[in-house]
Design a protein that fits this description.
This protein is an alpha/beta fold. It is built from 7 helices and 9 strands; from the N terminus they run E-E-E-H-E-H-E-H-E-E-E-E-H-H-H-H. Helix 3 crosses helix 6. The protein is globular.
Length: 204
Amino acid sequence: MRPSVVLAFDTATPSATVALVRAGELLGDRRSGASSVLADADALLHEAGLTASDLAALAVGTGPGSFTGLRIGLATALGLALAQDVPVAGVSTLDALAAAAPGSLPIIDARRGEIFTLLDGLPRAVRPDELELEPGTVCVGDGAVRYRALFEAAGGEVPPDSSDLHAPQARFHALLARDFGPAELVQPLYVRAPDAVRRAGARA
């Protein structure tokens, strides 16, 4: 049975989002930054006439995306879960992006000249020019915005930069969430090694 009141958030990209969902119905959502997740969550609960004790579960974005952003999101989920004694489910940021625009291809800016996307349903890190698009493919996410010219030249379609489709809307995390359990079991989806690990390996 799906939890009644779910607080969902994603901090994997620069545009962090928070949503409060009850029985599948959106009560409110906000977009800001990773450092504002708790304040945004508190505001949403207040606006809905609820408190943290009303939460039944949490849904958190697991990436891929910013290493720092992911750690903030997972640490926030762990702290809230322990404080309120509620279960947590992790949801791929790429899956949430795709859910907001059915049939679209989610693309997250991975920095270092790469993007995170789904290839054959699996998260991968590739160069933008390696991506083969079917004509008319709708590309969403901050990576689609950054490499708009390249993807449109390849036959893809990218919504306007201001479109909400380019941010991982947390309401979809709540709807996609499955297998709620202990927060410490939720793991980030890095896809590739964090920069610090890569630099350490290069020096070895």
